[in-house]
Amino acid sequence: MSTHLDTFSYDDAIVRKFLWATFIWGLVGMLVGLWIALELANPAFNLGLEWLSFGRLRPLHTNAVIFAFAGNAIFTGIYYSSQRLLKTRMFSDGLSRFHFWGWQAIIVAAALTLPLGFTQAKEYAELEWPIDIAIAVVWVAFAINFFGTLAKRRERHIYVAIWFYIASIVTVAVLHIFNNLSLPVGPLKSYSIYAGVQDAFMQWWYGHNAVAFFLTTPFLGLMYYFMPKAADKPVFSYKLSILHFWTIVFLYIWAGPHHLHYTALPDWASTLGMLFSVMLWMPSWGGMINGLLTLRGAWNKVAEEPVLKFFVVAVTAYGMSTFEGPMLSIKSVNSLAHYTDWIIAHVHTGALGWNGLLTFGMIYWLAPRLFQTPLYSKKLAEYHFWISTFGILLYVAAIYSAGITQGLMWRAFDETGRLAYPDFVETVMKLMPMNWVRVAGGTLYIVGMLMFGYNIFKTWAARPAKYDVPVISAPPLAKVYVDPHPVPAGTGVWARFTGVHWHRNWERMPLIFTVMIVLAVVVASLSEIIPTFLIRSNVPTIASVKPYTPLELAGRDLYIREGCFNCHSQMVRPLRHETERWGEYSKPGEFVYDHPFLWGSRRIGPDLARVGGKYPDLWHVRHFQDPRAVVQNSIMPTYAHLQKRALDFDGIQGRVDAMAMLGVPYGDAVNRAPAMAREQATALAAGIEATGGPAGLGDREVIALIAYLQRLGKDIRSAPVPAAGGTP
Amino acid sequence: MKLADVMSGAGLSIYAVVALLLFVIAFLAIVVRTYAPGSTARYDADARIPFSDDEPGPASRARE
């Protein structure tokens, strides 16, 4: 072994940058969350401004807290811990800075485009195609920097935290690319290349794995580094961490279809998603137990040290939400919970508890080290812990009750066999007290966030005039590896298998290790994707389902722009209370021209799959103008601007052409879409005027949206018997 | 004949179950291998990697 020692230093400047970004974007994302919670409690908070409406702001909240707050927190922890675990500076300071500034620019782009209505309408993948490309570029730069650092490491074995980082980096890349494949039709507008059932499948393959590989695996890596460091004890069981890692990688990728139970997704895919979700119980709880038992013999420190308090409750929240997730994936439980606030409560246990508290604990531990001065106030950190824990409890308890209440009201029948609460608004009003408690809980969490910011700011303010940059020395990796813990050589297949050589070898060969992860993820993904896309019986064709007219397509794009899918589903499940309330259940063949699918995941407002023809056109005009004038107690924002803004008829041709390129049989409309749209709009507007409505709507945006809504669910009514097989 | 014709006729409904079995077998293999005797010393050493840095500790004690 070489006796030569390399000297080097760690790049902590980049860690400090990501730390500040974590706080700033976290505060922004949470304030937007508080604002939309107020909008649900009282629609006056929409302020009548289109770019402040719930449908526009909800994606901003989710993107900000996931990709800006949690994202920057992950990078803070990864840049700090990877350099130390691998005993080397990052591969390239330039790439680190490019990653930082590129990521912040993407966040700014999201904060500008989402309120303006530029969205792909896919949850957590709303950002339009140029931003998606920027994300891919920045992510690749991060990956090069990270794998470059791995290549020049001075620690032979790769610690388990790094495995979790590797899995996160490669899997997020795969998910992001394949879910965002779309055909651009303008600088900030595109159509998903997938349609209907297949688009839904891809979206939730992505959506669930964004939770897995953005909010779970990187944070588990952080847990496996920062928790032992804070407790000053090695992880309880390294073997369990290996098991935890591979099981998470093997199982998570399959679980996505549990977001689509009882929808038009084929039953086999939904059952498979459920099975794998239930299996996830084991590794998740194994990981939680491993984290908590790391504190064995150190529980006295938890009483004194706010960092450990944050970690303990974060890991407990991980355990709670990973118990609840598999439970919610069981079809019978899901039939109650789906489309309700229960899911929102579940998500916030994970986000506020697991991701939030782990981040706070990590930063409280990092701040004295990065700013080279003691933490400004341990007592303030202690108060932060208690106020945010109480805020989470308040938020989650209220929204659990809200979700279960609404789910039960939707499915309740009276003694005569009719729906007990046929008026949907009644089920919305019932949640109002819970909505206000949610506002209170969220406010407490944000107050805690402000205390956190103040504490970190004051710590930073007391930093030395110049940061000390410690010089680290470590021997380079020897050319020939000598195992310090050799296992006596055995003979035979069994001895070779259990002789731990192969995994030990992978652990010092990051390339092979990464390939094995990619293999696991890709094989699992393709096992679900290929049958979903290529077995025709999964999507039986319905002859009467035709493409949207050019005007309806323009209306659909407005539905997307306004974010209507954030509150309204378009999917009637084959459950009696659903068909009683909404009409005929949805069939896979109904969505073959839907690029993207718009099934939604939440019913803050009623389902719209069968809304076509349910109300007169004039009703819609008045409803958009002032929802509460038509439906007392409605919490829908006003959409008066749709009557003021002129419809871009000339832009419709490009959109129809794009749809035709994606295989939608548009026929004659490929040549004369604007003219066809004008004809339909003129007729529709004349009808509205004739029934006593306002004149001059024929060239307004509202007419396109009404045309679209009046089309929904109509095709299926003219074809009671879907024909099996045929071309989708 | 299109790919979709081939796939539709290939009786792939069992495909996902086969993949499920493969994954369960791989999982069991990892369990057996990880918990096989003789590896404890190595894993204990690996678990100590986060503690092998020789950095100075943090500025101690918070100011209260």
Protein architecture, described:
The complex is a heterodimer of chains A (728) and B (64). Chain A has 728 residues and is mainly α. Chain A folds into two domains: 6-461, Up-down Bundle (Cytochrome C Oxidase, Chain A); 550-717, Cytochrome Bc1 Complex, Chain D, domain 2, CATH 1.10.760.10. In chain A, 63% of the residues lie in helices and 2% in strands. Chain A has 29 helices and four strands. Chain A has helices at residues 13-41, 54-86, 93-113, 129-151, 160-179, 196-214, 217-231, 238-252, 267-279, 281-293, 299-304, 306-329, 331-337, 341-370, 378-411, 424-429, 432-461, 492-498, 501-507, 510-534, 550-561, 576-582, 617-625, 627-630, 641-644, 652-661, 669-690, 701-711, 714-717; strands spanning 6-8, 182-186, 189-192, 472-474. Chain A is globular. In chain A, 54% of the residues are buried. Mean pLDDT of chain A is 92; it is low at 722-728. Chain B contains three helices and no strands. Chain B is 55% helix and 0% strand. The N and C termini of chain B lie far apart (77 Å). Mean pLDDT of chain B is 72; it is low at 60-64. Chain B is mostly helical and 64 residues long. The radius of gyration of chain B is 25 Å and the shape is elongated. Classes of the chains: A mainly alpha (728), B mainly alpha (64). At the A-B interface, helix 2, helix 7, helix 8, helix 9 and helix 19 of A face helix 1, helix 2 and helix 3 of B.
Describe the secondary structure blueprint for this structure.
The complex is a heterodimer of chains A (728) and B (64).
Chain A: E1 6-8, H1 13-41, H2 54-86, H3 93-113, H4 129-151, H5 160-179, E2 182-186, E3 189-192, H6 196-214, H7 217-231, H8 238-252, H9 267-279, H10 281-293, H11 299-304, H12 306-329, H13 331-337, H14 341-370, H15 378-411, H16 424-429, H17 432-461, E4 472-474, H18 492-498, H19 501-507, H20 510-534, H21 550-561, H22 576-582, H23 617-625, H24 627-630, H25 641-644, H26 652-661, H27 669-690, H28 701-711, H29 714-717
Antiparallel strand pairs in A: 1-4, 2-3
Helix pairs in contact in A: 1-2, 1-3, 1-17, 2-3, 2-7, 2-14, 3-4, 4-5, 5-6, 5-7, 5-8, 5-20, 6-20, 7-12, 7-14, 8-10, 9-12, 10-12, 12-14, 12-15, 14-15, 14-17, 15-17, 21-26, 21-28, 23-28, 26-27
Chain B: H1 3-9, H2 15-34, H3 40-47
